Amino acid sequence: MSDLVLQADCISRLYREGPQDLQVLDQLSLAVGRGETVAILGRSGAGKTTLLNVLGGLDRPDTGTVRVAGEDLYGCREKARGRLRNAHLGFVYQLHHLLPEFTALENVAMPLLLGNRPVTVVKDRAAALLERVGLGGRLEHKPGE
Fold this sequence. Notes:
Mean pLDDT: 88
Oligomer: single chain
Number of strands: 4
Number of helices: 4
Low-confidence stretches: none
Distance between the termini: 44 Å
C-alpha cells in the first residue's frame, strides 16, 4: 500500500471566457503523503481555488489524473466520487460556512453523519477533532457564540 493519499499528475484547467482563454492550471503535478501538511499559497487569481476544486473532485480537470487513496477520482461515477470525497477529503473554507443553528460539535459531525457512521462514533470523532484544534471547551457553542 502506498503512503500517498493524494496524487495529481499533469493537471490542466482552461477557462473559456469570450474570445480569450485563461489557462489557470498547466500540467501541474502534486503528491501528498500520509501525515504530510501542505499549504497552497499564491496571489489572487493564481488558481488556488481551482486547484483545490480539482483535487477535491468538485471541478473536472481538462487533462491529467487525480488519485485519492489510490483511486482515480474522475474515473468513477459522481455518486462514487462523492463517497470517496466523504471518506477521504475535507475542506476548511477561507470563509466560514458554519450552520448558525447548530453547535460546533454538530457542524463538525455533519459530514461524518453523511458517511453513514454510527452517531456515537461520529460525535466522539467530532469532539476529538475540535479538541485537537483547541475548541474542546466549546463543543456546545453555536457559531455566533
